[in-house]
Specification:
globular, 13-stranded antiparallel beta sheet, 7-stranded mixed beta sheet, 26 strands, 20 helices, alpha+beta
Length: 695
């Protein structure tokens, strides 16, 4: 009987276990939400030094580490015709002190295993607690006695100018500059921008003077987080930062909100080299974290464009396939000076359609109540982020600092979740109408005018034109009158003549090029070796020092492949067919008049160029030859893939003579979001190449 009971008990137990497993796997019903977490935020221990520094200490003993965050709470400062002075100061701070040389300073920081860095409005230091006293000492020395030298200034100034030059053709950089300048005004503290001219206006003394009036303890905060007692932190900060003397700070005006436009308008910036259009729909807002609308505004923005679940993303990416991502943001400032902004980068051909869809989704959230489930999901997202953030001790200190700097109620973060969950469907629609002001918005488009303007004009909104520095300009002219009688063959023949003549070009049987490669966003700089042999053999190998060859492309005249990360992919039949049709290393000497068309005389980055179009096997190729020099300066190749047009742009410059033939020394290849620059440092003609190189 006992055995039977045991068996019955086992069967019942297994049945209960089975029921429990099945219940866990049942996805047919939404599980009930657990109790809302109770937020109990302990206030950081706080004290103040005589020089005005407020110190906040959050003791956390989980790890034997400590961090010190210095924040100088000055009002925004307009730099005017010396814009860039704060950037230069940022790059110079933290590079030694008047007591410790730059090299010794950096060596000691490395030896301590610490991290010390500075910007124009503060600094940060962290490391092991046992070295904390020295870390604070070094940090305070770099704060109070920075090593600002003319030599370092000149070096950082050159770097900043070089960076500005490298971004001159970046549509992202232009969009970032122009949107703010148009929204606030170029003279506004939030609208001004740095240019090569303003940086050249900055002197070494300007940086020194800027440091004196902006880097001061009067309105400073130091947040200490880690395995350190309040007593020890107070002793350290008082000892090393207590000697930092106050300065007589000039009272600066409070930023004012710039009025929005009276009616929606498109602001267009022509970027002839752009492969995509940058779209930003923006209007200025008066929103503070302390406002009653703040939490509803967070929810409204999240639902519209806060991520992959937003209206914008689902429409423009998932439904239409116009872009990699479409998002929105809504700023909140203690001065009540901020912006709503919805943005995306889209293909040129759908620029006008994307603008229409942007406006459609913004109007939708203003006129249609959001679904309750959509609002609940947005709330859950914010609640999750908030609770996870509380696991970091730095969060507690930052919240306390934020309450101080933004004049928030003392219980702002204690009531955060309650305020989020109190947002209603009606609240979302109300704030959307208040802050997403489509009737007073600027639609800023930075793109290739010759491709997008004709259709953009059909959107039905007035268009105003600006240059890359937000200065009003006339509508760009995309083509100019062609010289009478000039043909595509004339342009091609002139190019052949300019680079060396047909006889010399036909003598070229092989070329070898070695190049330093820069890939936008990549932390490394590969080297490339490109070999070609007439009529159509091609090889490119890319390598990184210490890693060896990372990529190969080969075509031996009959077949080809690409090899990357050990994976070898055969060349497609279409690519093989296309390469087989190549007749030589200089395609211009084989072009037939019947297959090329001189379309226009147009502007390419400030250079008048003849635009020649050819189409073969459904692939459109555009070549631009400079009208003055006759040299090829740009090619555009457009192919169709999965129903989308993909354009690859190659720019040629820095031509140099090799054995009587002119060849480009630099190439920039733009393929969608990827940008690759090649600086060719060696070119060989008819040497260094064999047939085996293409296997």
């Amino acid at each position: 009987m006992k055995t039977l009971k045991l068996k019955l008990a086992a069967l019942v137990g297994m049945a209960l276990m089975s029921f429990g497993v099945n219940a866990q796997l049942d996805r047919s019903q939404m599980p009930e939400a657990g109790p809302e977490p109770v937020i109990n935020l302990e206030d950081p221990q706080e004290f103040k030094l005589k020089n005005g520094i407020t110190v906040m200490v959050v003791e956390n003993n989980k790890l034997p580490r400590v961090s010190y965050q210095l924040s100088i709470d000055n009002k925004p400062y307009a730099e005017g015709d010396k814009a860039g002075v704060s950037s230069l100061l940022s790059s110079m701070l933290g590079n030694g002190t008047t007591n410790v040389s730059k090299d010794k300073f950096n060596e000691e920081v490395d030896f301590l295993g610490a991290n010390i860095s500075f910007g124009s409005s503060g600094g940060f230091g962290s490391g092991l607690v046992k070295y904390s006293d020295r870390i604070v000492e070094l940090m305070s020395d770099a704060t109070i006695n920075p090593l600002l030298t003319k030599e370092e200034f000149d070096k950082e100034k050159d770097k900043l100018i070089e960076n500005l030059k490298s971004n001159a053709k970046s549509s992202d950089a232009v969009a970032g500059r122009v949107v703010g300048a148009l929204a606030y005004g170029k003279d506004h503290v939030y609208g001004e921008f740095t240019t090569e001219e303003t940086v050249n206006n900055v002197t070494f003394q300007d940086v020194v003077d800027f440091y004196k009036v902006r880097f001061a303890p009067n309105n400073a905060y130091i947040v200490v987080v880690g395995d350190i007692s309040v007593k020890d932190a107070k002793k350290q900060i008082k000892k090393y930062f207590g000697k930092w003397e106050k300065v007589d700070l000039k009272e600066l005006p409070t930023p004012e909100l710039t009025a929005n436009v009276s009616a929606p308008e498109i602001n267009f910036v022509d970027m002839p080299n752009a492969t995509q259009s940058n779209i930003s729909i923006t209007n200025n807002v008066d929103l503070k974290q302390s406002d009653e609308d703040y939490f509803a505004a967070l929810m409204a923005n999240n639902i519209l464009g806060g991520g992959g679940e937003g209206y914008l993303f689902k429409n423009l990416r998932e439904d239409k396939g116009y872009t990699y991502g479409a998002y929105s943001s809504l700023g909140a400032s203690r001065y009540g000076v901020s912006r709503f902004n919805a943005s995306a980068k889209v293909r040129n051909v759908v620029t006008d359609s994307a603008v229409v869809e942007f406006l459609k989704e913004i109007k939708r959230i203003r006129t249609e109540p959001v679904e309750v489930q959509t609002l609940d999901n947005a709330k859950a997202k914010y609640v999750g982020r908030f609770v996870m953030a509380l696991e970091r001790p730095q969060t507690i200190a930052n919240y306390a600092l934020n309450v101080r700097r933004n004049n928030l109620p003392a219980d702002f973060y204690s009531n955060y979740l309650e305020n989020i969950n109190n947002v209603s469907v009606e609240d979302v629609q109300r704030v959307a109408n208040k802050y997403f002001s489509v009737d007073n918005s600027r639609i800023v488009v930075v793109g290739k005018g010759s491709d997008v303007l004709e259709n953009l004009e059909k959107v039905g909104l007035p268009i105003k034109y600006y240059d890359k520095y937000a200065t009003a300009t006339d509508k760009p002219v995309f083509s100019k009158p062609l010289p009478e009688g000039l043909t595509a063959s004339d342009v091609i023949k002139n190019y052949v003549k300019v680079i060396g003549g047909e006889a010399k070009l036909r003598e070229v049987k092989s070329t070898l090029q070695s190049a330093d490669v820069t890939i936008a966003g990549a932390p490394f700089k590969p080297k490339a070796v490109i070999k070609q042999m007439a009529p159509n053999m091609y090889s490119m190998e890319m390598s990184i020092e210490g890693m060896g060859t990372i990529m190969k492309q080969k075509f031996d005249g009959k077949s080809g492949f690409q090899e990357q990360q050990g994976r070898k992919i055969p060349m497609s039949e279409d690519d093989v067919s296309s390469r087989k049709k190549t007749q030589g290393l200089f395609p211009e000497i084989y072009m037939e008049a019947s297959n090329i068309e001189l379309e226009s005389l147009t502007d390419v980055d400030g250079v008048d160029a003849y635009k020649i179009v050819s189409t073969e096997d459904g692939k459109k190729t555009i070549r631009f030859y400079a009208a003055d020099s006759g040299l090829l300066i740009r090619t555009e190749n457009t192919t169709e893939a999965q129903g989308q047009s993909i354009t690859s742009i190659t720019e040629y410059s820095d031509y140099k003579e090799v054995k009587g033939i002119m060849v480009p020394g630099k190439m920039k290849i733009t393929n969608g979001p990827q940008v690759i620059e090649m600086d060719i440092n060696e070119i060989k003609i008819n040497e260094g190449v064999t047939a085996e190189d293409f296997n």
